[in-house]
């Protein structure tokens, strides 16, 4: 049986404290030794593990785990929304890192019932991302690398916050899907990155983290800039579709900006790259007034 304290009554002093971490469900997980066989259950978590200096300890990941390049070579154990439980068990992991919001709760419960150590990583703020890297580093025994990566991320975010603290606001529509048309509210990391750059999310008050939106609502709101990803890291077709709405300020000023979706939609250190690019785009929009 793989060692885990999940549900155990064993005292914490029985384990090395450096291999303990409290996850984002406020559950404490301790390992008897640094994790050597890790499975990441979302593409974002795969990136977090590599950022923590523990990519070499990954034995599998889920579909669409494509960054860094080495992640493409990892065996797959299904998708983030449906795992291959037999494949996971056969790999004998000593740490599973889960995404509570996207992973099926029933399957996570099954993995825990099998005695597998499950750690939940669900960062929803910039500091949470840095903390996630640090905590994964504790469990994997790569704390030095993880702490360095976390510090770099925090410093980069702080620099952007200082630089754009007094920047004139730009009203932004953030498009995360095209059919149906979807956007995010103020709680989403994309919206927080928008605010970091001095942008104002025109749908910040929506009740759901991500939601469908009517085309008419976007036209009525008349954003100064539209920022979108696409069906790939270089596909800006979604933006091209807005060109026919020449009454929009964003179209009139050519403020239709592309940001590779994985740099904004995954809670990883690459969010700093996405935020920097977004800030540049919003500076361009200000210059076009």
Automatic annotation (TrEMBL):
The UniProt record lists the keyword Chloroplast: no
Residue ranges of every copy of the Fe/B12 periplasmic-binding domain listed in the record: 37-286
Keyword entries, A-Z: Signal
Alphabetical list of Pfam families matching this protein: Peripla_BP_2
InterPro entries hit by this protein: ABC_Transporter_SBP, ABC_transptr_periplasmic_BD, Vit_B12_bind_prot
Domain of life: Bacteria
Cited PANTHER family: MOLYBDATE-BINDING PROTEIN MOLA, VITAMIN B12-BINDING PROTEIN
Name of the protein in its database record: Cobalamin-binding protein
Source taxonomy: Bacteria, Pseudomonadati, Pseudomonadota, Gammaproteobacteria, Cellvibrionales
